[in-house]
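In this section we walk through a basic example: taking a raw amino acid sequence and producing a predicted 3D structure, encoded as discrete structure tokens. The instruction is simple. Fold the sequence below.
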Amino acid sequence: MTSSFSSSSWDSGTGILSLAPSDLSKPSSTGPQLAKDVDYAEAILKAWTSDANERTAKQLSTCRNIEYKCNNKDDTSLYGCIYRRSHFMEGNASSIPGLILFHTGAGPQDMFLRWKADSLVNDKELFPNGCVVLIADIIGDGEGWAWTDRLRYETVRKSILVPDEKGERNELKCRIQAAIDTLSAQPGVDAKQIAALGFCMGGHPILELARMNVPSVKVLVTYHGVFDGVDRLSHVSSNGASSTSDDELTTTKPSVLVCTGEDDPFVGKQDLAVATSMFNDIGCNCRVMSFQNTRHGFTNPAQDYNPSDAFAFNEDSYSKSWSDTRDLLKRHLN
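The resulting token sequence is shown next.
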């Protein structure tokens, strides 16, 4: 993908709702592939339209694709999308929270994430003055190739998520930092009021973000987040994470919510226990919501069309996890 991925103009955040499912499930000269197939696209379009129609405050969102760089030896290009309210003014001096969404194994070009971003920026009760959302890219996918090229995906995933001999994931940290810097640089964003939500593979950057000890990050949430291989990570504790005083460590550590399904075969009990222990050792206030009769991908209505029995949408588990997420954001942001 070339630099043409980035756009200087802002488009309607809900413009996707007017597109045909067949157009969303394939790449084109005007944009990336945003859905696995027609069934996936139809399921998200239905849920997103219902969500938009039920909003009491009829706000409008605007979005823009953005290419940003990872400060590594290769100067890796990453391809995200920024969402904000359409009435936002560039010269507005008021500061608003920023949120990062970390993608699943489907990659960053996923219309499910654009639905979530649109929902967040239009949540007037949660964010009276608005917020800015960055759909971050961890794998360097501006075309939507992760939908179809699974060998390439697995290769990139391994290069980013497998710890080195010292138990560190420096490439993942670099890409996370690039997302934080990109979001913080957006007009109007209060760089001291950041939250991050991770889905599936997005559990890894959420855990790594906690390990990075970034004081501006106030809330971290995972949904069916996977933590495979985290037992090989180096140990980080609240006393050794930085030179910050004990009082400052207590006040700057993010609150963490881990939402998981008890029937999720991709989230092993041991992996979950190790990750939870790490969050707590770092000094985070970590809470786990474990849902019965709930499989992988429970937040996504399109998973009902997944041929694998490991996946399924669960409306009750989704609603409860999203409600608790909003409560957490309300308490710690703004």
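Looking at the output, two observations stand out. The chain is about 30% helix and 20% strand. Confidence is low (pLDDT under 50) at residues 240-250. In the next section we compare this with other chains.
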